[in-house]
């Protein structure tokens, strides 16, 4: 058969559906979850997910970014549940830092197929971020949280970069410090009722250079949750500094979930 005939035959087969076309990222894993909801943590807002968002969108995922008010856990769970309801089909729910408490409470939603914790708290029933940080291990770094003012917490701007974003570009780390979102004391003390990780598959990315949540504490929470664990060298702001590593574990969760 001549080259021209081979090309005609291939074209005809493709038209009849007998020869598979090149698959898009969205179609690469039939049955896998295509929607991702990203939940930020304390002292930050949803804009920090920008580079993770770009990777996921490029790879064919539907991505929603929750803008939590961080006034109380109940408020943040409500906002997150609205994002889940608006998403197409099943959802991979992703939380960073305090966002892990939010997804632990909101993730029991029937639309949630899996949970991904990014250097995040994973409270059990009756636990809060406050209880999880009450007894730090000897020698663990102390986050530079200032005394509450009008019911809200903030980080010392002069110490923000070293504690929160040590591997983030200095000018961006400074912007993050200056634009930080005050964290409500009620959010810190909000308790989880039914932890979603007990009933949903979970993944956990440990940030090995984290100075806000000690890596050892991250590993302990991940093990308790029965999560599939990966580690990457990065600060607490690993979702900003290492977006490829973060997007990678999210996509693994999406491909494994239905």
UniProtKB/TrEMBL annotation:
A Gene Ontology molecular function term of the record: hydrolase activity
Superkingdom to which the source organism belongs: Bacteria
Alphabetical list of Pfam families matching this protein: Abhydrolase_6 (PF12697)
Domain AB hydrolase-1 residue range list: 36-248
Record's signal peptide: 1-25
Keywords assigned: Hydrolase, Signal
InterPro entries cross-referenced by the UniProt entry: AB_hydrolase_1 (IPR000073), AB_hydrolase_fold (IPR029058), Sec-Metab_Biosynth_Hydrolase (IPR052897)
The protein's name: Alpha/beta hydrolase
Species: Sphingomonas alpina
């Amino acid at each position: 058969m001549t080259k021209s005939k081979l090309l005609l035959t291939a074209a005809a087969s493709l038209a009849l559906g007998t020869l598979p076309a090149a698959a898009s990222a969205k179609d690469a894993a039939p049955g896998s979850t295509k929607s991702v909801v990203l939940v930020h943590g304390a002292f930050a807002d949803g804009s920090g997910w920008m580079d993770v968002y770009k990777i996921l969108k490029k790879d064919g995922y539907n991505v929603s970014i929750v803008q939590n008010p961080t006034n109380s856990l109940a408020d943040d769970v409500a906002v997150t549940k609205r994002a889940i309801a608006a998403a197409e089909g099943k959802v991979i729910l992703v939380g960073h830092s305090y966002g892990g408490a939010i997804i632990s409470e909101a993730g029991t939603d029937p639309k949630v197929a899996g949970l991904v914790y990014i250097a995040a708290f994973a409270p059990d029933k009756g636990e809060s971020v406050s209880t999880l940080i009450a007894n730090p291990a000897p020698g663990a770094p102390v986050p530079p949280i200032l005394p509450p003012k009008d019911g809200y917490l903030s980080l010392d701007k002069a110490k923000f970069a070293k504690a929160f974003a040590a591997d983030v570009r200095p000018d961006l780390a400074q912007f993050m410090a200056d634009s930080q979102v005050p964290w409500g004391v009620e959010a810190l003390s909000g308790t989880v009722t039914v932890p979603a990780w007990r009933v949903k598959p979970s993944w956990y990315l440990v940030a090995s250079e984290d100075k806000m949540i000690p890596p050892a504490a991250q590993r302990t929470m991940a093990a308790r949750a029965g999560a599939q664990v990966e580690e990457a060298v990065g600060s607490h702001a690993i979702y900003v500094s290492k977006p490829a590593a973060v997007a990678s574990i999210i996509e693994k969760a999406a491909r494994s979930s239905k």
